[in-house]
Amino acid sequence: MVLSQEVFFPLTVxxxxxCPVCSREIAxxxxxxxVGRLHFxxxxxxxxxxxxxxxxxxxxxxxxxxxxxxxHLYLGVEAFRAxxxxxxxxxxxxxSQLxxxxxxHLLAVLGYRVFARVRHWF
Length: 122
Description:
5 helices; 4 strands; 4-stranded mixed β-sheet; single chain; globular; alpha+beta; 122 residues
């Protein structure tokens, strides 16, 4: 499954900083983001204003979101696929493509839905 449109960078990634698993993964991506194609926003920070982004805070906490420079919004697995396209090297780009394959895409979407609900238990 191909991303529904081209991803325009910079990409803003909205993540739950109160989730230890999420924070650890985002720290990994931050370290790889040497060219600044990705901008990370912690939605659990007291200063975060979802309305300033025209987004719903409750919905943001249900799954990772990303928004590209053209205003396209990516949710869950698609947010990860868009994020990985912004990282250097082929490894993440290929992972993004791999998760676009129909069977794997469905498994990833179903797996992420479960993970997103129980992530705070890890």
